[in-house]
Structure formats: structure tokens, C-alpha cells
Write a structure and sequence with these properties.
With about 270 residues, the chain is mainly β. The chain contains one helix and 18 strands.
Length: about 270
């Protein structure tokens, strides 16, 4: 008897991007590019394509499914029924099922063809690639479900985000971003945090110099850690708190400063927690 474990993965930096593996394979052996699409939707068809590469030693077979979606109050993906304004009803995809040999790529083409006049604002879909069970017998087979997010925008687009609060909980090591979206397309905080020993933070103008600090290079005096902020989107008409967990410095580090730098709808955000 065979058992199947299906693992769902979402990486909201690019929305719906995961790896795929079996029980005897290390993770990260399926690559998808690009992992997200942002399209301008009007009355004419929009044609795009993506590539899936199989980095495994064995062939993989994938099935394609398309859904309408939103985020629930816990910022988790919620599949919605289709409606006349959801992109899943406008998409034509080819192929819908395919096998990729080891080391090879598969090109998937799709076209967005609105059946009605698109309303202003955002239209969404997620294209799921479901790994199908192999012909092997016995054992446990771990299957992955890989998702690619599709965002379509119809003019006039309105950006109207309000940052209600940006808080640091030092006990749990969490940055909380309270964000209200009064626009008609999604918004998000795109940025980074940096942790420095008290009195050593070089300033926001210099912060970008440390975001990709080489691992094999000695850290500057007082520099503890750096990382990306959780950029889970806040959909139109919603208010959400997006949490980023940061590494809490140990007691040997003494007092520390946390700096947050980024943008919300192209508006600059800078905050220092001394």
C-alpha cells in the first residue's frame, strides 16, 4: 500500500512559489520562473508564458488547475468561487497536463481574455501545478503543490494605503505592521530590518550597504543581523497586521537597536526602535 502526502507551499514575496520533492529527494528540485505575474488588463487578450524546470533525477508529471482566491483574516490563502470578474474565468492555459524529464524544462503558455468589461482595480487568479503520483509501488510519496499568482490591473487604479502602526515586541522578537488598504488593488510593505548594538547604527542612508553582507566577510562592529520584512499583501478594502519574526539578540549583545526601512505604495517608510 502506498501513502501520499501533499504539501502546499506559499512564498508571498512573489506569491505562490514553492519547491517540490519526494521522500528520497532533497527539497528545492523544481524551479518556476517567473513566480508571479502583474498584468495590465483591458479589452484585448494578454498573452504570457512561464517555465518549469525539473532538477530531479526522475521525471515528474504535473496537472494544472486555476482558481480565484483571497486572503482570510489570518492572512492565509482562501479559494473562492469563480465570478465574472475573476481572472480564472478569463484564462486559457496550454498544456493542462504534462511530464518533464530530468534536467528539462516545460513552457506553459496562457492567455487572459476578458469575457466582460473588467471593472477598475485588481483581478486575481492562482495557477496551481499539482505533482501527480509516480508509478513506483510502496512507501510514502511526498507530493508538492506549486502555485503562481496572477494579478491583473484595470485602470483607473487607486493606491490608498494607511500605515496605522509599526510596532516591535522585544519579548517575542516580532515586528507588527498594522496596514489599512483603502485602494482598489493590493498593497504591502516592501523592505528590510537591521539589528545593531546600541549606539552603532550607521543611519538609514547607509543601511542598504549591509542588506546583502557576504557570509564569509567579517561583520562590522555592532552589526548583529539583517533580514527582509514579511511582505504578505493586504488586499483592497482590508485591514491586516503583518508580522515579521526577527532574531532576538542574546544577553551578551546588550542593548540593541532595530531599524526598519521600506516602501508602501512607493511611500518611504523609516522607523528606528532604540
Amino acid at each position: 500500500m502506498r501513502r501520499f502526502i501533499v504539501i502546499f507551499g506559499i512564498l508571498w514575496l512573489s506569491v505562490f512559489s514553492t519547491n517540490s520533492l519526494r521522500a528520497d529527494d532533497p527539497p528545492g528540485q523544481i524551479a518556476v520562473s517567473p513566480a508571479m505575474f502583474e498584468l495590465k488588463i483591458g479589452s484585448q487578450p494578454v498573452n504570457e508564458s512561464l517555465r518549469i524546470k525539473n532538477l530531479k533525477k526522475n521525471p515528474i508529471t504535473l496537472k494544472v488547475e486555476v482558481y480565484n482566491w483571497a486572503l482570510d483574516e489570518k492572512n492565509e490563502v482562501k479559494i473562492l468561487p469563480p465570478n465574472p470578474q475573476s481572472i480564472d474565468q478569463w484564462m486559457v492555459i496550454n498544456p493542462l497536463s504534462f511530464t518533464v524529464e530530468p534536467g528539462k524544462e516545460q513552457v506553459i503558455r496562457f492567455s487572459v481574455r476578458p469575457r466582460v468589461v473588467p471593472t477598475p482595480g485588481e483581478h486575481r487568479a492562482v495557477v496551481y501545478f499539482l505533482e501527480q503520483p509516480s508509478s513506483a509501488s510502496g512507501g510514502v510519496e511526498v507530493l508538492f503543490k506549486l502555485g503562481v499568482g496572477i494579478y491583473g490591473y484595470t485602470d483607473p487604479v487607486k493606491h490608498a494605503a494607511v500605515l496605522n502602526n509599526l510596532m516591535l515586541d522585544r519579548t517575542s522578537g516580532a515586528l507588527h505592521v498594522d496596514l489599512q488598504n483603502n485602494g482598489n488593488v493590493h498593497t504591502r510593505l516592501k523592505g528590510d530590518y537591521a539589528i545593531w548594538k546600541k549606539g552603532t547604527f550607521p543611519g538609514f542612508k547607509s543601511m542598504s550597504n549591509y542588506l546583502n553582507w557576504p557570509k564569509d566577510k567579517k561583520l562590522p562592529e555592532g552589526f548583529i543581523a539583517v533580514g527582509a520584512m514579511n511582505n504578505t499583501p493586504v488586499l483592497a478594502g482590508n485591514r491586516r497586521t503583518i508580522t515579521t519574526t526577527i532574531p532576538v539578540p542574546d544577553s551578551k549583545s546588550g542593548d540593541y537597536t532595530v531599524a526598519v526601512q521600506g516602501t508602501i505604495d512607493d511611500k518611504r517608510i523609516e522607523k528606528l526602535f532604540p
